[in-house]
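Ligand: N-(aminocarbonyl)-beta-alanine. Inputs:
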Amino acid sequence: MSRTLITGGTVVTAADEMAVDVLVDGEKVVALGVDQGWTASTVIDATGRYVIPGGVDAHTHMELPFGGTFASDTFETGTRAAAWGGTTTIVDFAVQSMGGSLRAGLDTWMAKAQGECAIDYGLHMIMADVNEGSLKEMEGLVGEGVSSFKLFMAYPGVFYSDDGKILRALQKGAETGGLIMMHAENGIAIDVLVEQALARGNSDPRFHGVVRHALLEAEATSRAIRLAQVAGAPIYIVHLSATEALDELARARDQGVNAFAETCPQYLYLSTDDLARPGFEGAKYVCSTPLRPQDHQAALWKGLRTDDLSVVSTDHCPFCYTGQKDLGLGDFSKIPNGLPGVETRMDLLHQAVLDGHIGRRRWIELACATPARMFGLYPRKGTIAPGSDADIVVYDPTARHVLSAETHHMNVDYSCYEGKTVTGRAETVLSRGRVIVDRGEYRGRKGDGHFLRRDTCGYLR
Ligand code: URP
Ligand code: ZN
Ligand code: ZN
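Predicted complex:
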């Protein structure tokens, strides 16, 4: 077995910052220490660098079918881009089709991902059709390591579940340990507003943000949490973006409810100003929940500090501006929903450290440790400790670079952050002990990423 020694850096985990060396043997971290006289076949000098756990992005959509097209990153291109950005684990979403079983959806997504990924990956299950059969299947999936299920209060006729179906899924979640993840927007009401907006001739991308009203996110968030309470189940709210929704979440958490939530970098750095860019440019920023007015960002940063928001995921779901986003020219409701982001999350959150929004250990907690624990991967992923997988990033906190579609590795023809300078960059990336990014050179291989059979949520065990 080859040994790797990472020397001279500052190890940063969610719990500690330590000037120690890290010894890797094969795929695992075996020891942390100072002046141990360790020898290794590969020695990485991390002087002046942070040594951090590889990022865990718990919300990505490679190749997601949406609005008549597919997200433009495959498992191959998307996991390669993730690696470049210092993320070494993704949890993507298998999709149950309407009338189909969970098993069939899972098999389809396993086949898409297998042999393609450069980094380790897990799968959540999107439940598009909650019925007696799919409810029964949940237990089996939890046992196979697919221990979380996403439901939608949005997208009537596509992924939407009504309150009765949601309650049943939550009850089954409570029984089996499966964590229900909720897309919390009142899709029925939104569809009325979409119809009215289009009838008035309001077809530009910015109206996507108008019809997906913040109060309709807040209402759905509150309803989802209260349904979870009735079922005696925990709940995880995905891509929370509105202050009003955060208020509902915080109120429930103050009452002791096991309600968790993530937000995403786009809600922290982008706004309705981007949706309102001239011409059709705003289509690049169409995602759901939508971007909000800038004044929501301060509340989200605060939520990240107080732990009402405990995870930052990307909801990476890229569609090219030319040939995909333009399906919605003349009708904002036909713009495929989703943004690219799997490559930029770690750097944008490090920028947040430099800007004083969060601390360094909190950066690692939000981007690595908590998502791993939330989705049954900790301490294998999300930390650097003896026994953990050697998913490690040597991070240069001083490297300034400009985010751009010209230089990113995501398979999409634009960057949401075109021209933005950030400080900090993944310099060397190890995935289970193998160097896959080495100072600007990609050394990863498709197929080296393994499927992760996940345990149940680590906050409830
Ligand atoms: O706009 C988004 N978020 N697209 C991906 C699907 C989803 O709802 O997460
Ligand atoms: Zn969603
Ligand atoms: Zn999503």
